[in-house]
Amino acid sequence: MCSKETPRYPHRPLKFGVHNLLARLSIGFLAILQVAGGWQGELFDVVVYGATPGGISAALSAAGQGRRVALVAYNTHVGGMMTSGLGKSDVENRAMIGGLFREFTRRVKQTYVARYGAESENAKLCRDGYYYEPSVAESVLESMLQAQSGITVFRGWRVESATVETDALRSVEFEHRRRGERQTLASRVFVDATYEGDLYAAAGAEFRLGRESRDAFNEPHAGVVYFDYQRRVFLPGTTGEASELLPAYTYRLCLTRDPENAYRLAEPPPGYDRGEYLGYFEDLEEGRLAGPKVFKPGRGYNPAHFDTLVRALSVTDIPNLKTDVNFNPRPLAFPFPEQNRGYIEGDEATRHRIAERHRRLALGLLWFLQNDPTVPEEHRQLANELHLPRDEFQDNGHFPFQLYVREGRRLVGEYTLTEHDISGDGSDRRPRRHVDTIAIGEFPIDSFPCRKRQPGDTTVLEGYLGMLDHITRPYEIPYRIMIPRRIDGLIVPVAASTTHVAYSSIRMEPTWMALGQAAGTAAHLAVQHQVQPRDIPIEELQSILAQQGQVLQHSSE
């Protein structure tokens, strides 16, 4: 594991301190410079970098409390994965996630009911607003942002540098990705809501990158692991050693069944190599493309695809004859592991090259299933029912704009969430309780493979933790995982302080929206009380979140 971590030191108690006085003086000085004309940047109460669902939630929450907020988006589009192909909300227990995410689903449902009628097929397929077309999700999120006059959205910017004084983040210089111009934003509080953790890395915060060993936190599923997801046993090859390899990235496709809306591939993508997909024939022959032993709705299980090569895809119906399409990680021919090497710490050009490689692999698999003459004709016919939709991603070749970064950096925070927080420890296996709980997690541990097929692999790829059929009790998420150990003025609701195993559960957009709502409210309190985010009154934060409909309690039974 590549680590940017230094030895732990005890959690500092929530209290007012000298660093808060320094923060007040510094922000006050910036404000004086701005008024006097000596400061060339722009001063906000809160700056949120990353217009992911977690970032949008943070911006909405802070602005809703009267704060002036800058929301800085890397792309020209906002919404991250929720507007870029991830058309179904991964929620196992709907009662555990409320707040702004529930408001989002309410608006999605309202959109489909208003357009098509309450009894329409589209209204039913949206499943109370939890399933949606990317364009509908983007429209809803945009409308939520526009309803808050205190939010200024900057589109198409990336972090260039960060200014840190007395261990506190003071300002950030951003560069526009196309125009090349630069803009400096100063703030009382910053929120890093990127999938990659780019802002806190620029600020010099400690982070982890890669998978911890079993010994690091005594986690059974940590490190190099071969885990039989059907029999729930560890297989030979499992060492528990640390590894720099991360879960595979992919794109999440939106495909249509409507011939009138179909954008058909006329040719394979550049650099297409059919050899990258031939291993699926062995998967088919050996039963790895069969249906699941336990059939659960919403998991991308389409019985028509069982025991066909199209089972390389996980296809779920969403409104308007469209589908949410994931890439099935269980076949040994799964081509995406290790393709993300170098992405997180790469420069702009490196990240673009790696994202394009993933795009070509995704389109190449679709082309292979639809056109390769060695694919059985009935399988090709099934694959040719699905095409890119003409009315989605119209400025990006009808292809999603956001690479699915399932895991990047992970903050080293005041508390590290581990497998034990999620699965419980002790004889009763109850999840842990926290005095600073600000959200509830409820999704099983689910990590994509980290390594491509190795000699001797016959059951599962290394790193895959498909624990979707395990019982996961709701668990508490403490505020401290969003607070860096050393850098003040910064809150991290997405690439937060967890181990790899814990991140494999917490990494769902609805959960990140809950954490983002807590981050935005905490930023508001830091400004209101003129303290650092680590020193806000937790009881007040929890009280506000509860009033906003955030779920903070659960039954562990």
CATH architectural type of the largest domain: 3-Layer(bba) Sandwich
Domain count: the total is 2
Q: Write down the CATH topology of the largest domain.
A: FAD/NAD(P)-binding domain
List how many beta strands DSSP finds.
21
Main sheet specs: 7 strands, mixed
Shape, please?
A: globular
Mean pLDDT: 91
What is the percentage of strand-forming residues?
Answer: 15-25%
**Given the structure, what is the number of helices?**
14
The CATH homologous superfamily name of the largest domain equals FAD/NAD(P)-binding domain
In quaternary terms, these chains amount to single chain
**What is the CATH C level class of the largest domain, in words?**
Alpha Beta
Description:
The protein has 2 domains: about 40-210 and about 405-545, 3-Layer(bba) Sandwich (FAD/NAD(P)-binding domain); about 255-390, no CATH class. Helix content is about 30%, strand content about 15%. The chain contains 14 helices and 21 strands. A hairpin with a 4-residue loop joins β9 (about 225-230) and β10 (about 235). α2 runs parallel beside α13 and α3 (about 100-115) packs across α5 (about 135-145). The two termini are about 35 Å apart.
